[in-house]
Amino acid sequence: MKDIKELMPEELEMISGGRGLNAEEASQYEINRRYEELRLRYRAKGRIEEWHRVEQIIHDAAAKWYQAIRNATEDHPTSMSEEVLSVQDDYLAERNREKGIVTLNDIPEIKDGLSIWQGDITRLAVDAIVNAANSQMLGCFVPMHSCIDNCIHSFAGIQLRNECNEKMKVKRIQYGEDYEQPTAAPMLTEAYNLPAKKIVHVVGPIVSGRLTEDLENDLADCYANTLDLCKDSGLRSVAFCCISTGVFHFPNRKAAQSAVKTVREWMKRYPDSMDRVIFNVFKDEDRRYYEQELC
Question: Which of 103, 242, 263, 273 lies in the 20 to 30 Å Cα band around 75?
Answer without folding.
Answer: 242
